[in-house]
């Protein structure tokens, strides 16, 4: 039997079941007088008002929760090696340090790989110099056309140096084994997570021809010498949680259950590349500090100090027996991104009494072949952080040696600010790698040789950054798909303290905007 009761409205009370206990308990007595009835109806009216108020409060609270739950989304964009993944690491270190630090063992392997690759480059440079040396001595003076390239020239390589080099040749094999270890824990496919984790070698062999270390001409300046980016890199398919998989694997092999990274790193594992690195430590340090080696690298324009994943100034520490990466090491580690990956954080919202707000930060691969994957993420972003590596004004794209990296960045910036899908999205520019820019300018590399319009302005960091900043702002003003405020920051995203301040300001701005949009703040 059905009984429908509107308990708080006496007038509208509908009784269909006179024997229902609840109905009977609220039915007015038959002897009710007029004044009793008036008093009862007034009470019921008052109760209804309270009930309605409660309903409204509940509904408002639900609405607030619904709106507050709207997550803030940030997309990191920029060309390859602009610093997107490093910016993401800063987010993680700032807002999810526990997860960041639990990933130390995987980053340790990447850092070892970076070190070994740097040595691979040095060994190749020495081989090139040897080849030139041989060519120089075998060339007869009567055939001047075959004289060695003036860019390299004969360099006297001592027998000791060549012996050191021969001992370090084993690092090339170590490189392969570290990649294997990162992918399938030693080459097998026992661990299915890692078997599919696919740390990939980007296509193209290491190109060691002398011509590539010399002339690549910038379209903006026919006389400019451009630095060739390394042509082979290890990349990660970001759709797979490789760090977690790698940690899991190490835990399994070490039969450890703790998630503390120091416990996970199994220093006694005979397969750990750390043993070979430690055994080679003295030779590595000696080779890197050798004057002849530095000289031939300089002659071949191999500037490892300015390249990604440079750790050679910390060899002593990194080749130590029980090396564990620091936070700074992890920020400097280089692993190319493939695909798009989403990272979630919960951040305290200072504007709403410290309640937690979900954030999603998307990191994408910046290589040209990866850029088509960006577009589906343009919808519904609160902000884009665009990374412009301004130190790269004298470099070419790894994927196309005819294209200057700064020119590519300007083109990308133009296409992002003018994209109609992004007209409601905040765009924040990071003019990144200011530290490298400073070193380059101090070393005499002239911006005007690559950006003709710079003219005879002083070649120092203040003037150069102000000029580039104006250029980016000008493009935004001219091309933007909607009126926008230009947010431009000079950054060195491997420097956590300065980057954290910028990210904290960004966080506050986005939280405030998000609240304004949901009409809760005002
Ligand atoms: N010295 C210096 N190095 C930086 C800076 N920003 C990033 N790096 C380094 O540059 C390298 C490339 O940075 P990533 O963050 O991997 O670049 P990315 O934009 O994610 O590159 P892709 O994944 O290929 O798209 C890493 O080794 C970083 O540590 C900076 O401001 N200064
Ligand atoms: Mg990346």
TrEMBL record:
Binding site for Mg(2+): 337
Domain of life where this protein originates: Eukaryota
Region (Disordered): 128-157
Biased composition (Low complexity): 137-150
Entry keyword set: GTP-binding, Magnesium, Metal-binding, Nucleotide-binding, Transducer
PANTHER family with a match to the protein in the record: GTP-BINDING PROTEIN ALPHA SUBUNIT (PTHR10218), GUANINE NUCLEOTIDE-BINDING PROTEIN SUBUNIT ALPHA HOMOLOG (PTHR10218:SF360)
Protein name per UniProt: Guanine nucleotide binding protein, alpha subunit
Species: Crepidotus variabilis
């Amino acid at each position: 039997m059905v009984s429908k009761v509107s308990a708080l409205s006496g007038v509208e009370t509908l009784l269909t079941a006179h024997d229902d206990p609840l109905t009977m308990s609220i039915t007015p007595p038959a002897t009710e007088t007029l004044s009793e009835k008036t008093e009862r109806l007034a009470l019921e009216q008052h109760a209804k008002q309270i009930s309605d108020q409660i309903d409204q409060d509940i509904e408002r609270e639900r609405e607030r929760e619904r709106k507050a739950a709207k997550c803030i989304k940030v997309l990191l964009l920029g060309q390859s090696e602009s610093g997107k993944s490093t910016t993401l690491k800063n987010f993680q270190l700032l807002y999810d340090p526990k997860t960041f630090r639990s990933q130390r063992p995987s980053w340790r392997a990447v850092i070892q790989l970076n070190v070994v690759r740097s040595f691979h480059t040095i060994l190749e440079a020495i081989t090139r110099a040897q080849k030139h040396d041989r060519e120089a001595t075998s060339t007869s003076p009567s055939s001047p056309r075959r004289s060695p390239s003036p860019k390299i020239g004969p360099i006297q390589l001592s027998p000791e140096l060549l012996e050191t080099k021969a001992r370090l040749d084993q690092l090339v094999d170590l490189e392969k084994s570290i990649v294997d270890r990162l992918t399938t824990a030693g080459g097998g496919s026992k661990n299915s997570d890692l078997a599919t984790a696919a740390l990939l070698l980007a296509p193209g062999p290491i190109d060691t021809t002398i011509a590539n270390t010399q002339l690549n001409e910038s379209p903006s300046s026919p006389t400019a010498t451009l630095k060739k980016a390394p042509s082979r890199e290890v990349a990660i398919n970001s759709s797979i949680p490789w760090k977690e998989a790698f940690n899991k694997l190490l835990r399994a092999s070490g039969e450890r259950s703790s998630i503390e990274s120091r416990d996970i790193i199994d220093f006694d594992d005979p397969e750990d590349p750390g043993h070979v690195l430690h055994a080679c430590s003295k030779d590595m340090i000696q080779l890197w500090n050798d004057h002849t080696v530095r000289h031939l690298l300089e002659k071949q324009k191999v500037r490892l100090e300015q390249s990604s994943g440079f750790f050679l100034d910390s060899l002593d520490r990194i080749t130590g027996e029980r090396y564990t990466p620091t936070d700074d090491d992890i920020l400097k580690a280089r692993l190319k991104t493939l695909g798009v990956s989403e990272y979630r954080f919960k951040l305290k919202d200072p504007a709403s009494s410290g309640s937690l707000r979900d954030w999603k930060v998307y990191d994408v691969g910046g290589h040209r072949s990866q850029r088509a994957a960006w577009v589906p993420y343009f919808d519904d972003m609160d902000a884009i952080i665009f990374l412009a590596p301004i130190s790269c004004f004298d470099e070419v794209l790894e994927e196309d040696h005819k294209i200057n990296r700064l020119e590519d960045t300007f083109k990308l910036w133009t296409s992002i600010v003018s994209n109609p899908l992004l007209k409601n999205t905040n765009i924040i520019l990071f003019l990144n790698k200011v530290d490298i820019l400073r070193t380059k300018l101090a070393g005499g590399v002239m911006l005007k040789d690559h950006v003709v319009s710079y003219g005879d302005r002083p070649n120092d960091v203040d003037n150069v950054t102000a000029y580039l900043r104006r250029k980016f702002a000008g493009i935004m003003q001219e091309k933007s798909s909607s009126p926008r405020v230009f947010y431009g920051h000079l950054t060195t995203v491997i420097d956590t303290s300065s980057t954290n301040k910028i990210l904290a300001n960004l966080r506050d701005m986005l939280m405030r905007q998000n609240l304004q949009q949901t009409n809760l703040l005002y």
